[in-house]
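From the pipeline queue, job 12 of 40. The input is one protein chain; the requested action is below.

Action: predict structure.
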Amino acid sequence: MTKIALITGASSGIGEATARRLAADGWHVVAGARREDRLAELSASTGGIEFHRLDVTDRADVAEFVDRAVRDHGEIDAFIANAGVMPLSRLDAGLVEEWDRMIDVNVRGLLHGIAAALPHFTRQRRGHFVTVASIGAHQVTPTAAVYCGTKYAAWAITEGLRQECDPSIRVTTVSPGVVTSELADTISDPETREVMRIYRKDAIEPKAIGDAIAYALDQPADVDVTEMIVRPARQR
């Protein structure tokens, strides 16, 4: 029976790479993101991927994304909470709206996914949550205080979920290091943009994270890969 995986933030980067990897492994992928045109390109170029426009900051939108998949496919096997934003800046830059955006997407978006998928996993007595956190959940760097705070929150929420869930529901946190992506393109602060250009000179491709997620999902039902940090060998 074909397994069903839902992926948020699937229009680029880690989400796109994960969708392609799981589809290649025989999963049916339900890809969600705001950029519907990018999702359409992904679906057209890769078999086994359907797509729906999704805004993870809208709780009703996330609930419908999950419920539609259950209606269409009967059950769901994995929910991969990947959507995230990273407009870094120093706190004294005072970019409060950007802080709010990170909280809305990186924290509330994750909670909306849990709220939507957990009842189905509980009813099924099986399922697998995967949260894409960040190395920022484990170390704080200048300009990244808010971002790291949101990713630590994502780590803590996911670990709490793991402890609360019945063992039939597996929970994994994947914390990428520097990955080639569009995340840094959202940095509006000029000083921070230059710092990140240097910091991100050694990066791995998103495929490495997609492969790690595929590994966690592929383990036997009695094996829970709780956490992975995947980063460039040169990153210290």
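Job complete. The radius of gyration is 17 Å.
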